[in-house]
Design goal:
208 residues; alpha/beta; Rossmann fold; 8 strands; 49% helix; binds adenosine monophosphate
Length: 208
């Protein structure tokens, strides 16, 4: 099954993706994680992407699209993939459609994890992320429950950047909800609930 996850930053896309990966073995493709790894490794891409990310802006499409298309060529995506944080605008969605059709593949669903903006601001400002594996948890957890790595606050989870990221989501990413509704692929889950309750509905919506 090939899935696109939609939803504002902090809606819980990554958490639901992790659960789907554990249970069904899909490949998890998070452009945010791939970009943060490139920044950490100091690659050319990482150096170019960093300033956009720190400001809460989208990294230019040409930098992100190659990252995704290269990842989609990996064997582990054949049993299904979850795109998390991509596409982020209509141009990326159109590029994804043509890249998939060139590969003879298609999307099965676009799942919107729906959470109101007020809840998102609270969640993001208390979110901590594992430096090593990207696992997220609320503030107060010092060691990653998944791998023991150090938990830190992402620069773009600081209050001054959160509002910018939400504006970017509203203006550039939320139109994708209609894009995928028009293709008959949209499924919506209420993400403002306990993780396991959200996940139960996710599985039902995806008929898993
Ligand atoms: P995320 O972890 O998905 O919240 O992404 C963190 C940051 O990485 C975003 O605020 C953007 O700067 C950048 N980013 C992630 N995915 C994309 C994308 N598909 N297109 C452009 N920029 C992206």
């Amino acid at each position: 099954m090939n899935i696109v996850l939609l939803g504002a930053p902090g809606a819980g896309k990554g958490t639901q993706a992790q659960k789907l990966v554990e249970d069904f073995g899909f490949a998890h493709i998070s452009t945010g994680d791939l970009l943060r790894a490139a920044v950490k490794a100091g690659t050319k891409l990482g150096v170019k992407a960093k300033s956009y990310m720190d400001e809460g802006k989208l990294v230019p499409d040409r930098l992100v699209v190659d990252l995704v298309t290269e990842r989609l060529a990996d064997d582990d995506t054949q049993k299904g993939f979850i795109l998390d944080g991509f596409p982020r605008n209509t141009a990326q969605a159109v590029t994804l459609d043509s890249a998939l059709s060139e590969m003879g593949r298609n999307l099965d669903a676009a799942l919107l994890v729906d959470v109101k903006a007020e809840v998102i601001v609270k969640r993001l400002s208390s979110r901590r992320t594992c430096r090593d594996c990207g696992y997220t948890a609320p503030a107060g957890v010092d060691k990653c429950p998944a791998c023991g790595g150090e938990m830190y606050q992402r620069d773009d989870d600081k209050p001054e950047t959160i509002q910018k990221r939400l504006d970017v989501y509203e203006n550039q990413t939320s139109p994708l909800v209609e894009y995928y509704r028009g293709k008959g692929l949209l499924k919506v889950v209420d993400g403002d609930r306990l993780v396991d309750d959200v996940y139960k509905d996710v599985k039902e919506l995806l008929a898993l």
